[in-house]
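Sample pair:
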Amino acid sequence: MRGPEIKILHLSALAACLAAAALLGAQWEQKLKIPVPEGDILRAQAAGGEEEDYTSRETRTEKGTSQRIFRDGAALKAEYRFINFNKDRVAISFGMTGRDYKNYLAGYGYSDAELSALRAWRESARQAAWKSGFTSGGRPAGERAMAEVETDYDTRLRALLRARGLALRAGNLVECDMPVIVRRNTALLKPLALAFQKISSERGYSDEELVGAALSLVQTAVRYKIPPVVENGLHTGGLLPPARALLSGWGDCDTKTGLLASILGNWNTLRMVGIAVPGHYLMAIRRLPGKGDVFVRYEGLEYVLVEPAGPAWLEPGTVGTATTALLAGADGYQVEPFF
């Protein structure tokens, strides 16, 4: 099914733009999903995760940007320097104590042991339900009792996944629950949002320029790299939660979208939605589109598209040429309200 009405301007130049996509440095990946046949989640093939290294280091990313990720006593910190769309140099920082960060990471991903324990509960409960039901009402009662166990199992499974920032979708697929991740991380990233607000007030930025400053950070100063589906025994859904993205310095399109939306979510007047297309994820903000802006209509309102993935430096209303083609493709797109 196609998504809501979409308006894409300047499609006559699409072929030429696609030929130049490599120059923009855009990178896209297949959206990571874990198959779930007959209600059981299978292990995904490990992609080889990396151990985090918080030895003080400074890394140059795109031109004019750098990141420094280091330990400061019991705290983990990240400092970013980048250039916004006003061509101003911006410096921003974020940190968490090691204990808080460890507790934070425990809220994402699930292990095979956790799933095995849930399956073991289901098998034990099925046997008990069959015995009790069959004794009291024969085979029909036993089957009804086991069906109730299956419903309970499904509820518990979905609750486990939701608690770890994941969701069980149609077709028994597990993927990241972006609205849940954004809502969970908005308050955590409030200090970062306040830092952007302070910079914006001091320099006299408009609301649009404030959004652009946060977008520039995510696009150019946070490196583009695809997270593993399984890391250190945890099924991750292929996404780094926002605080880890900041304290690691990298992420893919899903990760960067979650990070940007979690920052911008601290302004309650800013309405945002996630935009899922085959193999890619981005977002859109509620405002009237300007000339040349790419936007979608959702529930009768225009939302201007924002492309957090990078490393291309794209202002709100401008997306990568590969994204333009995906939006106009036969599969359409899906809209996910963040709040």
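The radius of gyration is 22 Å.
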